[in-house]
Amino acid sequence: MVYDVTIIGGGPAGLYAAFQAGLYGLKAQLLEASPTLGGKVVTYSERVIHDIGGQPSISGHQLIQNLQEQAQLYPLPIRTATLVTDVSYDATAAIYNVQTAETTYQTKALVLAIGGGMVRHKTWPLLAEQTYTNVSYVPQNPAAYREQSVLLVGPGYNLMALAPHLIATAKAVHWIVAKRPFATEAEEQDFLTTYPQIDYQVQPILSYQQANGQLTAVTLANQQTVTVDTVVASFGYRRSLDTHTDWQLTPDQLATPLVQPIGQQVGAKIGVSLIANAFQEGTVAMATIAQQLHPTEKAPMVTTHNQDFDRINEAYWTVE
């Protein structure tokens, strides 16, 4: 199969570009190197974003969920854990060959939504490479922890924001850090005074217990044992800056309307870095590619009058 366009990167820019590809009737796919979609937003998924037009307040988690749902209004493949290792151009066939560890895809055009590179969470050193089903590095909505004993591990500022919101839903909230995350003792004391329900301790975790694939308890340096249902760990993240400069593409093969960089490309531009900018760039990129591939076809109708959305619109206005 030869795709009209392959979108490389599954952050906000890539996901919205995928929706636009469907809107323009392009045969598209999206490739994301990480196991999860969202790009850098997954590192602050529980934080609230306020600078997206029409969305005065939305969490990073909800934004990515919405963008994924929007992209999948059209039947395009979204492939996670798919690292693009190389891209080359076949001038005879006018095709880009997109190479991954598993296979090579052929595509007529590219949208590079690689942003700052692949984002990976730093793992909890105590666990080494071991994984457990109840240990996560991406916080969920507080409702997901209802009536659970939640252990927050690490000094991440994400946990500082998450912990107070768990009080209303979790059975117990334990925040254990090896080093104080607060800038001053006064800030720490203010936090403890405001949220006395949180079991906050500055104690190294010496060991842990596990059963049936889950982490069940931890033992602190003071010999206290904390029994848990769920663990959220936050130790920062690493960013891999491997970009298209490593691919077998010449500058001329990149500088074409059929290769569209969007979003926050490393070293590509300096300016205001807003998710809203990436949405506009994704729209322009797909309009440009569609015009190059299908110059005689009309631009799609706006979504309010587009027949692609008749079924959704009918369901939206149906009163039960």
UniProtKB/TrEMBL annotation:
A Pfam family recorded for this sequence: Pyr_redox_2
Q: Which UniProt keywords apply?
A: Flavoprotein, Oxidoreductase
Q: What cofactors does this protein use?
A: FAD
Domain FAD/NAD(P)-binding: start-end pairs = 3-243
**Which InterPro entries does this one have?**
FAD/NAD-bd_sf, FAD/NAD-binding_dom, Ferredoxin-NADP_redctase_2
Q: Name one GO molecular function term.
A: oxidoreductase activity
Q: What do we know about how this protein assembles, alone or with others? A: Homodimer.
Q: What is this protein called?
A: FAD/NAD(P)-binding domain-containing protein
The species this protein was found in: Latilactobacillus fuchuensis DSM 14340 = JCM 11249
